[in-house]
């Protein structure tokens, strides 16, 4: 009877991997790092609710990939800020830490931007001053709240992920704070200068279209030892991944095509993962699909 109760308790305490948002980290840590070592390393940053290493099902060996789930978003943010680039014994190579992608969000969330409700009498400066007591606020944009006439919705952009996380956790209940969704950027012809407008109406060639519309596809040159699943897991740490395909030509280098559902995620993936060592000792090359 006691054994059944223990099993039930274990089941009910399994954390929700998507709550709170951005509280789960993806870690490239090397194949010699154990679950115990991973948890010990990240415990100083906060309460670790879940920690595991990904193993190859066919060989049983570690893939050098880990996931760490924290109790709070700010704990994950602090770990991301301070742990990235350090090393976990017995590995000597620096680890790579990123936010693990959500499994439920249809649109990626912006870890630097919050959406909050506020009274209509508060202007942007007042909202910035209120949240600036806790975090570094870069900008505030106010728009009328369509669902609650007489109130506003404020979009706050923060200096860092940690600043946004602390503001998210300390916001008053009436603010109903949540991380804002990333929306595809729209081009308005009204904002285009006259000399630029002429180029919009020229015959569009394939080369020019890639300039006007930043691609969401990336080309990845990587080691032929990597599988499509490994490439998928690597790029899936950045929200918005739609598709991944890899081709092997028999040589030492393979080519993969990675597609995101928005240009911001594609740009971020290129900036963060270009020349990243994966596997350890071999760098991948990430380019825009148009290059």
TrEMBL record:
Name of this chain's protein: RRM domain-containing protein
UniProt cross-references to InterPro entries, sorted A to Z: Nucleotide-bd_a/b_plait_sf, RBD_domain_sf, RRM_dom, SLIRP/GR-RBP-like
Xref: Gene3D superfamilies: 3.30.70.330
One MF annotation (Gene Ontology) recorded for this entry: RNA binding
Classification via SMART domains: RRM
Listed Pfam families: RRM_1
Keyword Ligase on entry: no
Domain called RRM: residue spans: 10-102
PROSITE patterns from the UniProt entry: RRM
PANTHER family the record matches: HETEROGENEOUS NUCLEAR RIBONUCLEOPROTEIN 87F-RELATED
UniProt entry keywords in alphabetical sequence: RNA-binding
């Amino acid at each position: 009877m006691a054994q059944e109760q223990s099993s039930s308790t274990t089941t009910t305490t399994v954390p929700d991997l998507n709550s709170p948002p951005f509280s789960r980290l993806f870690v490239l840590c090397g194949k010699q790092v154990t679950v115990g070592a991973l948890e010990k390393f990240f415990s100083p940053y906060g309460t670790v609710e879940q920690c595991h290493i990904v193993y190859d099902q066919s060989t049983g060996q570690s893939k050098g990939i880990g996931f760490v789930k924290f109790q709070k978003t700010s704990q994950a943010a602090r770990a991301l800020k301070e742990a990235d680039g350090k090393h976990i014994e017995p590995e000597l190579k620096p680890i790579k830490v990123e936010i693990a992608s959500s499994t439920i969000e249809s649109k990626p969330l912006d870890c630097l931007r919050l959406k909050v409700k506020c009274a209509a009498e508060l202007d942007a400066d007042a909202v910035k001053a209120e949240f600036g007591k806790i975090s570094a606020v870069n900008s505030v944009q106010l728009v009328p709240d369509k669902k609650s006439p007489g109130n506003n919705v404020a979009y706050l952009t923060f200096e860092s992920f940690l600043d946004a996380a602390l503001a998210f956790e300390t916001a008053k209940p009436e603010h109903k704070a949540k991380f804002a969704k990333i929306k595809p950027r729209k081009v308005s012809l009204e904002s285009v200068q006259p000399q630029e407008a002429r180029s919009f109406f020229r015959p569009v060639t394939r080369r020019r279209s890639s300039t006007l519309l930043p691609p969401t596809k990336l080309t990845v040159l990587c080691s032929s030892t990597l599988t499509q699943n490994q490439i998928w897991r690597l790029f899936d740490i950045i929200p918005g991944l739609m598709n991944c395909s890899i081709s092997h030509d028999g040589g030492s280098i393979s080519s993969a095509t990675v597609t995101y559902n928005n240009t911001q995620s594609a740009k971020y993936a290129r900036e963060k993962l270009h020349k990243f060592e994966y596997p350890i000792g071999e760098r991948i090359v990430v380019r825009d699909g148009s290059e």
